[in-house]
């Protein structure tokens, strides 16, 4: 998703979105839709069987996002009116019934400050945030998917929601550097324990997070008797979490938990919206507790930088240029915007890289003339390797 606020931006933004879509899904097709400002992202977890029955398990709020990708999810969605909740449930049942859907699904919507509800999409699969719905309903959604596949009927009685659950995505990203991907070796991973804590992790100490896939390392899911208890338990859990070797989104979650907007006790004070992180990132940096995560290399040595251009390896040698423009992350160069002999001004975008399903521009931090290009389009480079040299 890319927001276009001026017609002059349309062509370049569609091109970027098409590249991302083709990399992620193998299809470059894009849609153009109205963009709704300052909305909440709310959704319903649903199950539908082979007998025409559809059940809504719970609502969820997934408003806290960066780059239109979810970071924090909770169930049930807080501060919904009875009318809004009813409309979400009825719409979800109608949508899935209309297409004769079978299995688990998530119906996603936008809720505006004025109370308008807009349909977004149906995710025709289980989602990353499904654990929060499981925690507040005690329903094993994966087991239910197997039961449906075997032809069994789902229980039509509306599941009873009890308590409140919040999920924090721990991604290999640097939140204070525009959520730049940070793949690499996990020297040590210390996970929290205690009442109400569930851990779903795909990595452990000694594993390497590669740059080729999504940046998700794992999920910390915290459940309490109500939302306030879940928040208190979450603060303790994130304070106990520690990772060494790479940076992660964990300290950013601590900042979110410290913000009064997120910890609000009334709908009037709950002013979170889908662009809230983008607009408040500077202020949130000041809310991180003093105890920050360690994110240094496992030793003080500097790794040898080797860039790959197609099948050809270019070993680091004494550069023949005045200054190098370095890769801001480990990833693939998907577009070079300059050639040898071109003049470059400080601040110009000289290349586009992709890592962990996200595009990242490479910005020149010096002015000069391009004297050497070290990689080709499609080549993989390590973070801090020279992409090109200037004289």
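Sequence proposed for the structure above (391 residues):
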């Amino acid at each position: 998703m890319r927001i276009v606020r001026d017609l002059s931006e349309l062509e370049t933004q569609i091109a970027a979105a098409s590249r991302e879509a083709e990399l992620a899904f193998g299809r470059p097709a894009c849609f153009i839709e109205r963009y709704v400002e300052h909305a909440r992202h709310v959704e319903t977890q649903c199950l539908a069987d082979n007998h025409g029955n559809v059940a809504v398990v719970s609502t969820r709020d997934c408003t806290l996002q960066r780059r239109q990708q979810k970071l924090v999810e909770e169930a049930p969605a807080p501060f919904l009116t009875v009318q809004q909740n009813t409309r979400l449930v009825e719409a979800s049942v109608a949508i899935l019934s209309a297409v004769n859907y079978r299995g688990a699904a998530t119906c996603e919507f936008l809720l505006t400050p004025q109370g308008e509800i807009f349909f977004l999409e149906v995710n025709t699969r289980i989602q990353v945030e499904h654990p929060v719905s499981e925690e507040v309903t005690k329903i094993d959604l994966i087991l239910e998917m197997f039961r449906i596949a075997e032809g069994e009927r789902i229980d039509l009685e509306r599941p009873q929601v009890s308590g409140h659950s919040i999920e924090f995505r721990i991604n290999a990203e640097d939140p204070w550097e525009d959520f730049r991907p940070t793949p690499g070796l996990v020297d040590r991973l210390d996970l929290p324990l205690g009442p109400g804590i569930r851990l779903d992790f795909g990595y452990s100490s000694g594993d390497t997070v590669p740059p080729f896939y999504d940046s998700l390392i794992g999920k910390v899911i915290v459940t309490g008797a109500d939302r306030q208890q879940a928040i208190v338990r979450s603060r303790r859990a994130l304070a106990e979490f520690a990772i060494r070797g790479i940076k992660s989104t964990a300290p950013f979650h601590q900042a979110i938990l410290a913000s009064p907007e997120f910890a609000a006790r009334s709908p009037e004070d709950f002013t979170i919206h889908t662009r809230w992180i983008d607009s408040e990132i500077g202020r949130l940096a000041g809310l991180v507790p003093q105890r920050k995560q360690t994110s240094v290399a496992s030793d003080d040595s500097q790794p040898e930088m080797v860039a790959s251009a197609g099948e050809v390896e270019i070993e680091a040698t004494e550069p023949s240029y005045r200054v190098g423009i370095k890769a801001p992350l480990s990833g693939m160069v998907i577009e070079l915007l300059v050639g040898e002999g071109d003049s470059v001004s400080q601040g110009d975008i000289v290349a586009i890289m992709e890592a962990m399903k996200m595009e990242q521009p490479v910005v020149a931090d010096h002015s000069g003339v391009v004297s050497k290009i070290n990689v080709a389009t499609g080549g993989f480079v390590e973070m801090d390797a020279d992409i090109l040299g200037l004289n």
